[in-house]
Write a structure and sequence with these properties.
homodimer, 6-stranded antiparallel beta sheet, 3-stranded antiparallel beta sheet, 27% helix, DNA-binding
Chain lengths: 230, 230
DNA sequence: GAGTGGTCTAGACCACGTT
DNA sequence: ACGTGGTCTAGACCACTCC
């Protein structure tokens, strides 16, 4: 027989009580044992439910003190990051890309700094325009640390750098930042826009754990939004 | 004796094998039972480790077929959303805000649409300028469905709307979207900037589950970034 | 020292999806 | 039908933290 209170049901019930203000922000809630007794299930089941709520920022839990409803809730917004081709195709649009530039270069100091590298090193500089239904969608400006990459393809016209990396250097460490910036005259031209125009910008930097791999700046055409539920 | 392979150690070991390409994208990995035997632990411990990796988008798991390394990884980027005061103070800056406008108004159709409300309803329109170290930081434009809110404070000069809501309507459902926009002349003036200027914009809409509560647009002064590790 | 959450175990049954 | 992950149980020990 299916237990009437699985961990998801318990999580939902706890959320209900919090939203109904039966348990108010800052207030203690019963211990796992008490709730297990109330719901007629094992403590591990209650633990699973409360652990997920703590992870979501709804509860604060400490040994000995017990669990409280968060007083200053820190909600977590989670966004999916995937390769550009799938993002475009996921909207039902056709995907294409154009390699604008590919050359060895000494990057600006800001890029070296983001990668934590010393000066005067040459990196592979790739600039790519991504298209959705043949309309400019995203301008990619990437620096690649070729020293740590095995078997680089002869050129990146067949498969985008983006996809080559996720296939060949999977699950690297990294960080990502979102911001807004005015398009430079060249960016506006490449995206087919007239200035002034505001671009949504995502910057990613990735490492293998010891060596830096790549720093990339993605400038999205106007209208782009990243969205999620809370 | 502490088990040499707790679930975190197993998660780390699986990640190591994936990054070392011992287990390549698209490839099957052993079943939970096999790994439990290999690591000398209970299946539940392996399950915990693999479940977290599936949640992070690293593994794809299906009953009967088993677990595979994701071929087209969808990494999850998670950002913390908190009240503006804590965000500013968390940077070591002093926080203040100015209530610019507070009046009952019929909102534009776009706002009613986001809230899923029918036309011609009056909502409370609040515009607030948030300051960090006395410098304009964020321009907030909010519409509040006063009909569902109990005990509204007399005015929002003492406590920001933001904080009043998290205390009194905790853990509502909602969505959030990030985008970029050119500042309007008025926005530029209020933020003390000269046009043209690109603003980072966050839009949130929240419900109690049945009734809409608020729709808010947050326009951040240049330099603002949301950042996280992957 | 004592109370609470964090984790692990060994076993069980079920849900799902492939065959 | 069968194999695999998803969940639950009852119990145990430990880690942390407050007293």
């Amino acid at each position: 027989m299916k237990p009437p209170f699985g961990w998801e049901a318990i999580r939902a019930e706890v959320m209900r009580r919090i939203r109904a203000r039966e348990w108010q922000p800052g207030q203690s809630i019963p211990t796992e044992e008490q709730m297990a007794a109330e719901f007629g299930c094992a403590r591990a089941t209650v633990n699973r439910a409360l652990r997920e709520l703590a992870l979501a920022g709804v509860l604060e839990r400490r040994r000995k003190s017990g669990s409280r409803v968060a007083l200053n809730p820190v909600r977590k917004a989670s966004f999916d990051i995937t390769v550009t081709r799938l993002e475009v195709e996921g909207r039902g649009q056709s995907y294409a890309f154009v390699l604008l530039e590919e050359r060895e270069q000494v990057p600006p100091a800001a890029v070296l700094d983001r990668l934590g590298m010393a000066g005067n090193q040459q990196l592979l500089h790739l600039r790519t325009l991504h298209l959705a239904d043949a309309v400019p969608f995203l301008l990619e400006d990437r620096w690649l640390n070729t020293g740590v990459l095995p078997d680089l393809p002869r050129d990146f016209r067949a498969m985008s750098v983006n996809e080559w990396l996720v296939r060949n250097m999977p699950f690297t460490y990294g960080d990502i930042a979102f911001s807004a910036a005015l398009a430079t005259p060249e960016e506006a031209r490449l995206l087919g826009l007239t200035e002034p125009v505001a671009l949504f910008v995502a910057e990613r930097t990735t490492w293998t754990g010891d060596a830096p791999i790549t720093a990339v700046r993605l400038a999205y055409a106007p209208g782009y939004r990243v969205q999620t539920v809370l």
